[in-house]
Amino acid sequence: MKNNKFFWLLSLMLVLSVFLAACGKDDAATPAPNGDDDKEPATEVDEAQVLNLIMSAEIPTMDSALVTDSVGFDLLNNVNEGLYRLNDENVAVPAIAESEPTVSEDGLVYTFTIRDSKWSDGSPVTAGDFEFAWKRAMNPDTASEYGPYMMGGVVKNATAISEGKAEYTELGVKAVDEKTLEVTLEKQVPYFLSLMSFGTFLPQNEAFVTEKGADYATNSDNLISNGPFVLEAWDGTGLSWQLVKNDQYWDAETVKLTEINYDVVKETATAVNLYTTGEKDRTALSGEYAMQYAADADLVTELETTLFYFKYNQQRDGKDTPLANVNIREAITKGFNKQDLVDVVLANGSVPANYLVPKAFSFNEAGEDFRDINGEMSEFNAEEAKAAWEKGLSELGVTEVTLEILGGDTELSKKMDEYFKSQLEGNLEGLKITLKEVPFAVRLDLDTAQNYDIQVAGWGPDFQDPYTFMNLWLTDGGNNKMSYSNPKFDELVNSSVGELAMDPEARWDAMAQAEKLLIEEDFGIGPIYQRGTMSLVKPYVKGVVTHSFGGDYSYKWAYIEGK
Amino acid sequence: MTKYIVKRVFYMFITLFLIATATFFLMKTLPGSPISSAPKLTSTQLAVVEAKYGLDQPLPVQYGKYMLNLAQGDLGNSFQFKGASVTDLILSRLGPSFLLGSQGLILGLAIGIILGMISALRQNTIWDFGSTFIAILGISIPSFVFATFLQYWLAVKWGLFPVALWNDGWMSSVLPSIALAMGPLAVGSRFIRTEMIEVLSSDYITLAKSKGANGFEVAFKHAFRNALIPLVTVLGPLAAGLLTGSLVIEQIFAIPGIGEQFVKAIMVSDFSIIMGTTLFFSVFLVFVILVVDILYGVIDPRIRLSGGES
């Protein structure tokens, strides 16, 4: 009898497992973006316009008012379209705006005409959709992070609204009629049109958003698009989804890809295996994989516009740190070999940075790179570093200094920190470096409390203008958190968005002077490197545009040829 | 039996209550918060967000509200997936983890038991050494090494199974299940071997043999059943661990499972998901322990359940 019970239980477990296996098959078969049915035609028909991609993380949200991460911005850039879009040469050009806007004489009122275009449900895109979306991003109830950040000091009343001094309905954006959008600015903003391609300024269909309520943009059923693609098969938290060509898109003729299949893969080894077997068309390489594939014919190296630097905290617990001394800051800035760091430690296509505004990021009207004005500054120089160090020590009246480097807890961060320690201690006699490696959230807390000596920090741009890097170091600036202050620097940077706002040449010059002041005279921060990426990309993938800010890639012009 | 189960279920609730309380307060001691990784929020917006998630309330109030919601089956919303319900997230991630875990467990135990029996019955032969060698491999080599090996050879080189991802139906589950099976295989084989050798040398086996029972009868009818008891003891935690997801295996095979999500939630201080998954794991573990206790009685009638005495 007991025997029977035991075998009955075993049988039950087996039946359950078979049942679960069957369920698993059904569940998994539903999205099946890469299922055999889809794959076979791709190999038979030479020019099937299907792209198979890997993402490094899930999509937290597709609500343009709430999005803050690179995955969200990247997808929004492909499923939606704002007044402007970055074109295949990374220049912001009119998109849902029919043409360039008319600008009032004082440069404060921009009037856009909305082109004939539709949402994926067939309803027209109107000026009201922009007014609704922007005001929704400023509504405190929406709790948008980027809304107040991107609009503050730009769109009229945005700062007052985020400080609770005005109602969000008072934001300076108004749909005059269905086709006319009037935007009033707080002050002249020379980079305003470049902002119009950024995710936070995308339109939202009021009727649809209102109907969906809290469910809006939480999965692909609760989302509509006005861009080149439509998001499908996204359940809100899953690891796979699909972009399908949007036939309602006003410029659908340009879009060649019919389908883009995404899967989240977090292990580089797995991603490389998927690439090798031909299941995926592109994969990013990290760490040792970058070195391993350095000579591969499919390798593509790109320079990002993200810059990493030392933040030198000049005041801790209300007292000056040794870093309040400019010579100590100079010594550390010049005291480590950046070329070896990028070649040996990073080995991912990054380049040494001896500047604040990245290379190949912002250009003047003649197309010249901002970087060409100041060139390289404060490069590695062990002798100059030593001289500055000794001068600094004597000014402080000490022979030894202990400083803490605050860094991340990833393998790469730890390797870098060790490198900094050995280089700086080796080149600067009397310096002792202690390392503090913490998770990102903790680092932000310590930064806010200004509880560190030296911090390894990074910044990526939010719009295509040097100002996005320069304003970080204004006295009491939101990201300053290191007690750097130089009235001359403030004056120069503020003038670039003040009296010089409409004089491109003079403002370019002012920002260049400010950069020189910060990096070469004050050593306010110590630039380290400009990040690069290495990826394997199948040679038949053509026309993908990599962007320097906002969404990482555009697939509007992408196609498959010669597969 | 019924009285015993009712009593155990009552204790289960007490245990879960204590776990929920301890996790809640421990979690609040974690550095950072779900919104500390939002550096661009202005102070006004920060206050709004804190109020929205109730983070501005004193800790006892937050605790009270959480427990009240929990009693109503509401685990709250995720911070990282804006607007996603934690219950939905757990349910959607559970299927793959459970499928892989159950397949790995059954496969591992089945092979492990067979190997263990062969080892015991053919002690000190090449069969014994072979089986022991496999068990040692299973114990000493981490599952992610097996996973990488299986992925490279069976998927990349020979193309027998999908490399990774969860889109090829049941085939997607084969390699991760085999990788997961190595643990239970090793444990099962080791326990069965040790116990069978001990049982086979006991008096009642000698008696059975003297009564004329053949080798098969002795091995399966008499020895195997008693050798199962220690295995059942470790089965509970083993099953709970496997069925609720393996972070590394899920990550290597890019499977949308719960283990992978749990660790990510801790990294980004997603309080709701940390609480939800911890509670879910706890419910599962105490349930499995109960099932294991009941199994004891089924396997060995000497273990009595009534009155909670065992």
From TrEMBL, chain A:
Every Solute-binding protein family domain range: 93-480
Entry keyword set: Peptide transport, Protein transport, Signal, Transport
GO molecular function terms noted in the UniProt entry: peptide transmembrane transporter activity
Subcellular location: Cell envelope
Biological processes annotated in GO: peptide transport
Pfam family of the protein (one): SBP_bac_5
GO cellular component terms attached to this protein's record: ATP-binding cassette (ABC) transporter complex; outer membrane-bounded periplasmic space
Statement: the UniProt record of this protein carries the keyword Protein transport: yes
PROSITE patterns, sorted: PROKAR_LIPOPROTEIN
Signal peptide: 1-24
InterPro entries per UniProt: Peptide/Ni-bd, SBP_5, SBP_5_dom
Similarity field: Belongs to the bacterial solute-binding protein 5 family.
Name of the protein this chain belongs to: Peptide ABC transporter substrate-binding protein
Organism (species): Paenisporosarcina antarctica
UniProtKB/TrEMBL annotation, chain B:
Native source species: Paenisporosarcina antarctica
PROSITE patterns hit by this protein: ABC_TM1
GO BP term, pick one: transmembrane transport
One Pfam family recorded for the sequence: BPD_transp_1
Keyword field contains Transmembrane helix: yes
Subcellular location(s) per record: Cell membrane
Protein name as it appears in the record: ABC transporter permease
Membrane topology classification: Multi-pass membrane protein
A cellular-component GO term for this protein: plasma membrane
Source organism, top-level taxon: Bacteria
TM segment ranges: 9-27, 98-121, 133-154, 174-192, 228-253, 273-296
SUPFAM superfamilies: MetI-like
UniProt cross-references to NCBIfam families, sorted A to Z: Opp3B (NF045471)
Positions of the ABC transmembrane type-1 domain: 94-296
Keywords per UniProt: Cell membrane, Membrane, Transmembrane, Transmembrane helix, Transport
PANTHER family: DIPEPTIDE TRANSPORT SYSTEM PERMEASE PROTEIN DPPB-RELATED (PTHR43163)
